[in-house]
Amino acid sequence: MIIRTVVAEDDYLVREAVSRLLADAPGIALVATAADLGTLQASVEEHRPDVVVTDIRMPPTGVDEGIRLASALRESHPDIGVVVLSQHAEPEYVLELLDQGSSRRAYLLKERVHHRGQLLDAVRAVHEGGSYVDPKIVEVLIAGRSRSSSSPLRDLTSREVETLAEIAQGKSNDAIAASLFLTKRAVEKHINSIFMKLNLTEAHDVSRRVKAALMFLADKGMKPGSA
């Protein structure tokens, strides 16, 4: 199956780089590009792509157009996946992106665009109904939480911290097992232990547990009532 994509980025060079990477990738077709939110919205309506790859900030306001588009598409086109590109590791924007669920949503740093594999992984993940969070974002969250003397992260073993980082990136148990060279049974044991220690036992499916893990790691950065 061909994944039909639209790319939105106001910086010409970045837009061309992302577009070329996607256009040259097997199984992916670039159907349109845009430099602002209005053009992007029109392109989505005209082409009905499978995945939108968008800058987080574009005209007209240059604040959070990518996040707002992702939220709007939840209602108007829930089957369209969205990969948001950002220049900075900003956990609050990740949480806002996943506020209505992590399925079909990805947050990737622009520096990763040079690593073709990560961009393609993110596009394919959201197309398949999954999620993808840049590992660097997870590292920032874990580092921030670990510094707190009262953080439950201090109760996790080093292997459990590694597993938590994999969960927050949106990986399945099978993918975590392959990444950490563990058996699936060992991964399940680590996850059960993590969720018990962090009081996240209600999170079961991949989408819910990604959000649960990121919400825990961000902790004080969450808005009241967003859980």
SSE pattern, N- to C-terminal? EHEHEHEHEHEHHHHH
Question: How far is the N terminus from the C terminus?
Answer: 36 Å
Specify the oligomeric state. Answer: single chain
> Which term fits the overall shape?
globular
Helix content: 40-55%
Q: Number of helical runs?
A: 10
Tell me the total number of β-strands. 6
Mean pLDDT: 86
Backbone CA Rg? 17 Å
Instruction: Please give the order of strands in the largest beta sheet.
Output: 2-1-3-4-5-6
For the report, how would you describe the main beta sheet? 6 strands, parallel
Secondary-structure-based class equals alpha/beta
Strand residues, percent: 5-15%
Given as residue ranges, the uncertain stretches (5+ residues, pLDDT < 50) are: 220-227
